[in-house]
Structures are given as structure tokens and as C-alpha cells.
Amino acid sequence: MKRGFTLIELIIVIIVIGILATIAVPQYLKAVERAKGGKARQALSLIAQAEKMYRADDANGAYIICATKADVQTNLGTWIELKEVEADLDWDYDVAAPGGDPPTFTAQATRVATAVNAGETITVDQDGVWAGTFVP
In a 3-state reduction of DSSP, which class is residue 63? Predict the structure, then answer.
């Protein structure tokens, strides 16, 4: 009596593993992208809270403009801990505060150029309205 597997049995096992990998890898990558989107939404929520705290303390009742992640950390980091925002390698963050009466702001996360969904955005404004083009 022979022991071991035949060549056909080994080929069938390899094919089954290949089929499972073909199904699992794209689902895993989608889950990773959804998680990165959740990370950006959390960071934007913190930035929005910091903007509201800044406005409450500002003599003019205005929001602050932040053009880069470093600006966000420097200008709003005294209100809420934002070190994760500056260290984030997946997203760039900025805040536009065009003024107006009443003052407004829009915080935006933009996917970095080296990412799968490069250039896509997630935004939140002073009223908590979420928008953007990011779809994982």
C-alpha cells in the first residue's frame, strides 16, 4: 500500500486555496480601506470639536484656518490632543474657514497620493454635516 498524496490531489488542493485567496484578498483590502476611512472620520470629529472650542474662546468668535496637518496640530492641538492627525500617513487634513456671518468651517481629509483611493475626500462642517467622495 502506498502512502502520500497523488499529484491530482495536490493540484486540487492548490486550486481550492487559490480560489479562496481570490475571494478573501479583495474583501480584506476593502476592510482595510473602511478602517482607514473610519480613522479619518474620527480625526475630523476631533478637529471639528477643537474648532468649536477655539471659536468659543476666540474674542471675535471665528474659526481658524489650517492649511496642513502641521497647522492643525499647531493651531488646534492646544484644545484637543491631535498628535494622531499629524502622524497619519494615510490622510492629509486641512480646515477652510471662509468666515461669513455666522462663521463657518469645513474640515477635510484627503487621501494621500500614494494610496489606493488617492485624492478622495471626507469633509465635515460646523453643523456636523458629512460629505466627500471617499468610498472604500
Answer: coil
